[in-house]
Amino acid sequence: MNNETEKDFNLGGSIDTALSGQYQLSITSVFKEAWDCTIKHFLSFSPAIILLAILQLAIFFLALHFQVSNVTEIFENFAKNGKLPEGFMRSLYIANFSYEVISAPFYAGVSLMAMSHAVGLKTTTKQIGSGLQYTIPVIIVTLVSLVLQGIANLLVPVISLYLSLAFTNAGLLVCEKRIRPFNALWISLRAANRKLLQLAVIYAVIMGLFLAALMFYGIGLVLVLPFFFHVKGIIYRNMFGVRLKIVATPHDDSNDSGGENDQDKPSQIFNA
Questions:
Q1: 215 domain-assigned
Q2: Phi and psi (nearest 5°) for 11?
Q3: Residue 77 pLDDT more than 90?
Q4: Does a structural domain hold residue 18?
Q5: How far apart are CA 89 and CA 85, in angstroms?
Q6: Burial of 205 (0-12, 13-18, 19+ CB in 10 A)
Q7: Domain that holds residue 241
């Protein structure tokens, strides 16, 4: 007989508080907590980050190779002459677009792992595939977001930066709240507008960290990448909250000779 008791609860904000702007978003607190999460989960989280990076690079270069057969020669000529052949930038854009769309479910999986760390849960590398069950809606969200950013970039580039910031939580809303893609984009945008200045500062600092990491031959990315995902997870938790489930198993006195009380039995906590 199963005597387990389940209880759902929400940790952090909610959609209502996010849309009303009644959520906490202290820049220093977000960075401090994200750094603590990065250090605590560094060894267990890094393999997933590496797998995602390898996958994205493979998709990027395959997409580029299908368009340009002599990629190596082009980069060698660019190093010598500082010139790129006509149309090559368009090929780079298509390759970048391809890897972002195709790898979106795995990117969502890594984001979900970081979100779990933000609520005190541990993860394993295989959870990088946790976003695969949301493949279609996540790809739709990514596709629509990239198309809108691309159009905005042609008109007013600063609007493209704004949209990339405003849509940053849409993927997690699809996966964690099971919200439809277009609704997720709209909710993410409205919630971001409530704390736009704080979000802009946070992601501007992260962009600076990425640039600094690249200046040192990319070595710093081993810390910056997990830090970035943890920042995203903490922001999402503070904005929208994370649904969790507590599963408690009552103590059975007949099978225990130690006289342990029910209150001493630890509950298990899962993502709902």
A1: yes
A2: -105, 120
A3: no
A4: yes
A5: 8
A6: middle
A7: 5-71+88-253+260-271
pTM across the whole model: 0.87
Give 64's contacts (C-beta < 8 A, 6+ positions apart).
71, 91, 92, 95
Give the number of domains in the chain. Answer: 1
- DSSP states of 141-164 as a string? HHHHHHHHHHHHHHH-HHHHHHHH
What is the helix (H) or strand (E) element at residue 232, kind and residue range? helix 221-240
C-alpha 220: how far from chain center:
19
Q: What pLDDT is recorded for position 73?
A: 72
> 10 burial class (0-12, 13-18, 19+ CB within 10 angstroms)?
middle
Could you tell me which residue, 218 or 196, shows the higher pLDDT? Answer: 196
Give the tens place of pLDDT for each residue, 235-245.
Answer: 999 999 998 87
- Reported as a single tens digit per residue, the pLDDT across 158-169 is 999 999 999 999
pLDDT computed for residue 34 by the predictor: 97
- C-alpha distances (whole Å) from 52 to each of 38, 62, 165, 270 are 17, 15, 21, 24
Cα 159 to Cα 162: distance, rounded to the nearest angstrom? 5
Cβ atoms of 33 and 238 within 8 Å: the answer is no
| Chain length of the chain | 272
CB contact at 8 A, 206 and 225:
no
In a domain, 13, yes or no: yes
